Automatic annotation (TrEMBL):
SUPFAM superfamilies the UniProt entry points to: Acyl-CoA N-acyltransferases (Nat)
InterPro entries: Acyl_CoA_acyltransferase, Bact_Acetyltransf, GNAT_dom
Organism: Aquamicrobium ahrensii
Superkingdom per UniProt: Bacteria
Protein keywords: Acyltransferase, Transferase
Protein name according to UniProt: GNAT superfamily N-acetyltransferase
Pfam families: Acetyltransf_10
Annotated ranges, domain N-acetyltransferase: 1-160
PANTHER family, A to Z: AMINOALKYLPHOSPHONATE N-ACETYLTRANSFERASE-RELATED, AMINOALKYLPHOSPHONATE N-ACETYLTRANSFERASE-RELATED-RELATED
Amino acid sequence: MFVRTAGERDLEAIRTLLAETWHATYDAIYGPQRVNEITAEWHSMASLRARLTHPHSEFLVADDGEAISGMAFATAIDDGKLVLLRQLYVLPQKQGAGVGAMLLEEIEQCFPEARMVRVEVERENAAAVSFYRARGFSDFGRPAQTHPEVSILVMEKPLA
């Protein structure tokens, strides 16, 4: 398994990965219909394509040479001092095998000026909350924008 920059040819596989991962993770929280709606909007080809050229960002995939097992997307703000981890998803059957940790480590290395990484996690997604806590993230607070249907936990990790 290796981590590399995502490209145009990866977008369909990433979209499939996101749909599968979202259903496995969020069907029990939001219901399959709402997950379909979110996936159609947030993970459309146009939305994914825009990430390829987003300024001050990194769009990565975990690839074993045959298939993509995970993806991550992050942006830097505040003159590069703060990294916002927008997405980090791993196929359900590959979770627990170190793929997410590899992606997170690479994101952290991609932003040498960064002093902090911040992520928003659905509070009911216990596996994700546990994943981030095990990697040095702690609770930071509530997001600036709130949505009535979700309960978001903001977590941060200081970088050296």
